[in-house]
Queue: 2 jobs
Job 1
Amino acid sequence: MSSPPAPIAPGGTIGILGGGQLARMLSIAAARLGLRAHVFCQTPDQTVAEVAGSATVADFEDEAALAAFAEAVDVVTFETENIPVASAEFLAARVPVRPSAHCLAVAQDRLTEKTFLREAGIVTADFAAVDSPADLEAALREIGLPAVLKTRRFGYDGKGQFLIREPGQTGDAWKAVNGAPSILEAFVPFECELSVIAARGLDGGIACFDAVRNEHENHILSKTIAPAGLPDLLYGQAQAMARRIAERLDYAGVLGVEMFLVPGAEPSLYVNEIAPRVHNSGHWTIDACAISQFEQHVRTICGWPLGAPVRHSDAVMTNLIGDQVAGWQDLGRQPGLAVHIYGKEEIRPGRKMGHVTQLFPLGSLDEDAPATTARTRSLKLPPEKIGSRP
Ligand code: AMP
């Protein structure tokens, strides 16, 4: 293996495609290391501009803006997988793009992603490509019911998905995906959802945080419990899967790997999807680790040594969705609760407005009946008033 490129020293600039809270937290982490952030976002209202040193507002397809951005930065990364691969390739011809345009291409299409995972020897739900109602009928015969129809691209937080329980629902399912190129997946009867945040450096070194347990409400991540409360063997298996994925992709940066834990005499792990970026289920690392997922990402894309993925506390991270953020004063009064607010002006239903992290003594969430302990101890927020406006 050739020697890794020279690291980007303090004073250098990382370019971030996308302007949401992930870019904001990456910019903050970069600043802590003496690095500058230059964000490239498509709309001017992105709150990341408050914390990044510079911002470009242009379409991701605007080649003149991309070329100028490439000139202004030392490395490019992204906070969302919904970046045109052609734009990442255009940038990569001018400046290092980490993770690569290839990783982006694999992760932004569920069919390519699941095919890659299977070829890498990773267990996934059975799946089939669906491009027409006839394909859907054929895929259902192959995969059986229940099954989940998902658009191949641009799906997030359960959008563009339909759970088919009965044969009569195929028309509704096809409507739900708007007739877009899709994938049919066997329904996985999981006990819980887990994720692993892994990082791979430019020298090929890999560091993984412990697997965490994720709970969703209305298809949006609500809580992450760190650690997940698993037998040691499963922690090891979850990390080994994330490692294998990172290696096979020749990955650079932080990677989120979402998994299902399927119960049985021998519980097994299925990978649901990979996120080629920092991930919501890694936000707890800001408060519970010396080196967060955001700093780890900045370190890896800049060629710095990997930080140790060590937790000094157990943690429960709770997202503040929509008008839950209005409770910031009460949350702020709770000693030891780390409050993070993303500075978004408009509260919209289902919008991630901030998060809070509660810390617990190391090992306390993994004792006895871990999931129950974590749940009973974890913060209760009033439910989001769906549909409410500020
Ligand atoms: P995704 O967009 O693939 O992350 O799916 C959103 C959510 O739908 C997941 O977090 C699961 O709760 C559920 N889900 C997705 N795929 C499946 C599946 N094949 N079997 C069971 N549940 C699923």
Job 2
Amino acid sequence: MNPFVYNGLPSRVIFGAGSIAQLPAELDRLGAKRALLLSTPEQKQSLQEVSKALGARCAGTYDKAAMHVPVEIAEDARRVARELGADCCVTVGGGSTTGLGKAIALTSTLPILAVPTTYAGSEMTPIYGLTEGGLKKTGRDARVLPKTVIYDPKLTLSLPAAMSAASGMNAIAHCVEALYAHDGNPIISLMAEEGIRALAASLPRVVSDGRDIEARTDALYGAWLAGVALGSAGMALHHKLCHVLGGFGLPHAETHSIVLPHAMKYNSAAAPAAMARVARSIGGNDAPGAVWDLESRLGIPMRLADVGMKQVDIERAAKIATEAPYPNPRKVEYGPVLELLKAAWEGRRPAG
Ligand code: NAD
């Protein structure tokens, strides 16, 4: 075993079906008396239900969270938090809502209590992102890591099948890249492998019956582990490519699921131990092929062409993704990355 550094990320996790009932007690534990509740417009109703359950502990609600945290919305939400005299943010939603809570926490001392309802994993990371003038900037700051996370699988029952599948593959992508991260370690690798196992086993069940609470519970458990992996290990080519493609307006989770088998193929010869662990946790011998097969069973889009990527933009995306060096198992070079993106655009199964 090589020497390593392990940095535990401090957060308290309440996990299990029905655990949202513990929200008032968890707010008390944080010393919070005036919580600002956040969501997207689509989850306004869930927010109202949580707000009712909180009674006087709820200082107000803000339901304008949007993908990639536009800076104007962040500023508006910060203003609302100040005007209400909020002493805590409760985020009820996916990565977009958690991201808005992080934007508030970044410029204040407000703690975040996160209630995730997708498998994106942001609630477990000190990573934030803000978009200004079409450009998304990300950073790390300990202040944005939620203090408490309530994982209630019941709140994921309403996540549509296609979104569940893509979001779950987004989580698997965190685990895969943690397994070959330049700064990875054996503890995070344990979590990453277990995360892939839990998600790969549960996602087909979630897709066939979205109200299967056991499958939902297993998937959310996998997503938690994946979030820890994302927050603890440096991500590589796959996440870089998805970040770049996000700049072209592509949807977050779907882009991750489409690119993943191709990014894995790119790295497979340079990261054989990681690939063996992925294959072991999904089943099969060839990890990129096993991921691709799992995705085809889930019935999600398999081609970048299907989620709005224009063929003429492929070269530009490959250029942006390769202009600055970053750690990756295999050297990141324009020609092979262009081939990777072409394969993802066409949705070809990576050759074993
Ligand atoms: P999202 O939060 O944008 O949610 C997608 C849609 O699904 C929204 O309309 C939302 O309201 C709806 N939704 C969420 N949960 C639902 C449920 N249970 N039932 C019904 N509808 C539901 O999507 P996401 O994929 O969770 O997050 C993507 C964003 O998060 C991106 O901006 C990404 O960059 C960011 N992200 C950040 C980190 C980080 O560590 N900072 C990690 C992962 C993702």
